[in-house]
Amino acid sequence: MITTSHFLGADKALLSRRRWIRDDAMPEPVDFYFDFISPYGWIASRQIDAIAARHGREVVWRPLLLGITVLQVMGLKPLLDTPLKGDYLRHDVPRTARLFDLPYNPPPDGRQPNPLAAARAYYWLFDRDPALAKQLARRLYDRQWAEATDISSAEVVVETAGEFGIARETALAALADQKVKDRLRIAVEEAVARKAFGSPFIIVDDEPFWGCDRLWMVEKWLAGGGW
Amino acid sequence: MTADRAPAAGRAPAADPTPAADPTPAAPLEFWFDFSSPYAYFASLAVEGVAARHGRSVLWRPFMLGVAFKRTGMTSLSRTPLRGDYARKDWARLARRAGVAFRLPPGHPITALPASRAFYWLERVEPARAAPFAKAVFHAYFVENQDLTGAAGVAAVAAGLGLDPARVAAAVEEPEIKALFTRRTQEAIGRGVFGSPFFFVDDEPFWGSDRLPMIEEWLARGGW
Description:
The complex is a heterodimer. Chain A is of the alpha+beta class.
């Protein structure tokens, strides 16, 4: 199994030369932006908390919508519909998952899910219990990309929330609430305002990192305080 | 890997004059790039080391990224909202990390036709100098910020390597060289190349300078 630390080996000397800056205050959490439709985001989701924890950091998960950031703000086509690139990604995602020893197992129809219900449920719960919200997001993400379950429907999201003791009626009401829908819209606007545009997109102390192939760099940045 | 290809004990003549060396030399690591691509520049600094550590050579393959963009509908990073800002920050960060000078040239990105044509001409007439020329082009563009939009600028880079600038300037206008470069670009797109840099290890595709560690892993393990 390959971990991000595998790629760190060559630079241990460099890292040990760096001066550690310690502060009495808790360090800022790492922001982890992702879209539930993104398997690369899922690959990062399986690693990001452990990477941050090795450097004394928490991670705040922040779902965004590539449909807004990529399609509307950047004016690009959906990745999988992009000629040549779509074929490459269909080859690369399972290969990358195998490299990191992750149990990639998407729904057999190959369709991308609709992320709205999952993302809305996340932010609704985040405002009440951030730790539980992260557990729910992790579970939803795993169901989609490791358990071949399409998480598009409110029904699947509600059922998954039920595993964490959230009553069905409560979850259904939350998903139908206009305030919850607005909460997601604002979260995506905030992501765009922070120039987070991809999935995964990780911000460490205002330093942005895009892509699950940059996790090694996130780790170096956390270890050395940047360069 | 060699065990099943070794001659069977009973059949190997004792006096066989040819040594039982590796029967097929490993295919080179293919490195497809556009000379105007900053990520290709960073990759160019590392690719030979990656290949050499695994007994491979590098096949340098410039192509015209703009032609691939016409197929995919993508645009250059610098001109994509959000991603352009990110890329500029990222290039500076990669340059600091690699300890190399890097300045985005004014007018970037350019259409690097003359440099690409000169590369393929050189590969034909003096193949040993093609890779050094490619590296010199990257350096001239991303470090020295020389104007490489025309044949004169490219000929000046070649002159720095001791090549005759007049020959280079003439070569990039030859119809046969122009057609050769067009074929290379079509070959790239035909094989699914849509970005720069793009690599093939024994036909396994890898996109992006970020993937050099994964390529190295692939070379070491023979895939997974």
